[in-house]
Amino acid sequence: MLFSFSLKSSILLIFFFHGIVFSTLLLVKGLQTENKSNLLLSLFILLCAFYIAPFMFGYAGWYSKQHYRDFLFYVPFQQLFLLPPVLYFYIKTLLDKSFQFSTKDYIHFLPATIYLIYSFIIFIVDKVILNEYYFYSDGKDKDFSFWYQVAGLFSLVFYLIRSLRTYNSYRIMTYNSVSFAESVMFKWAKRFLTAFLMLIIIRILFFMINPEWDEFGKKFWYYVSFSVLFYYVSISGYTNSILSATSFKDFTINPNADLKLEADNISETEFINNTKEEKNKVQDLDMWKEKIETLMCNDKMYENPQLVISDISSKLGTHSKKVSQVINQGFNMNFNDFINHYRITYFLQKIQGGEHNIQTFLSIAFECGFNSKSTFNRAFKRATSLNPKEYIEKYYKK
């Protein structure tokens, strides 16, 4: 088998080999645990390995040999319409373990399907019907056509925007639903989206430097940069524990909700009725605020490190959306910050009682309901503008 081991082909071969290995590992792990996000990440890494394959084989001399050249010509290694939606649905399944593909979701894969059909038609015409290069009469690989590369770049940008919106929706939902939001706000998802953004920046940069994508000598550093990125994603994606304690299915987010009273074009009677309704809403809000505050003070539910909003709503005999609305509007906080406020207040009460002299800050924090040192430190500094040590030195210095 022909493979010329040069510096360039060997470097890309190392990344290609590791991509295949990590893709296989994630595939096995995904099948064993029935984890859709691992399966999609496995597919993403495999597509990344295939993406660098033409250049790796090109540096190894494949484009100069007939049968090898035909293989590179007619196999669509660079799936520029498939990579972006795979990235997008990876983010969705990563953040929401209950996500299920619907019929409309498969529309996202239609451009990739059309390109596969297009590639198959080219193969049939050139190699079966005409038995000569017709579509490939110019001797250039169709994967490097300018229109295809540009369309692939736009697809990446489009799906990055969708992925960021998905992450932001998840972030809002989480902070309004659980008291341990920072524990389930995946740092890995952030890093993955950052790598996604860097990928786009690199593509745009190299497009500006050299738009001729079939010029091998000028594209090597781009493919090395791309390889480093997907190698990082491979290692981090496999080693990180990707678990979510919440699901989009459990909560309803309505970003278009408008609570403002529209006063235009209404009659005097309607205005009076609306005024009464608003007054009743204020009274209702005050009533529920008092119920929630009483529950927090008497039952100390904030001591539960796994507290979720449904625990509160069950105690009060109402639904989670009502509790979330009261906390948002009545206390001007999300659920996560609201519970942490009580935890910090309880922590400060313990400090006033001198408990910091007999046990560590972290032990006290755990007793108050925090489940990690980093979450406690952030909440404490947000509430007092000081870290615990600075607070003690300032107010309880002996």
TrEMBL record:
It holds the Pfam family HTH_18. The keyword Nucleus does not apply. The chain crosses the membrane at residues 6-27, 39-59, 71-91, 106-125, 145-161, 192-209, 221-239. InterPro entries: Homeodomain-like_sf (IPR009057), HTH_AraC (IPR018060). Keywords: DNA-binding, Membrane, Transcription, Transcription regulation, Transmembrane, Transmembrane helix. The keyword Transcription applies. Residues 290-394 form the HTH araC/xylS-type domain. SMART domains: HTH_ARAC (SM00342). It comes from the Bacteria. SUPFAM superfamilies: Homeodomain-like. This is AraC family transcriptional regulator. It comes from Arcicella lustrica.
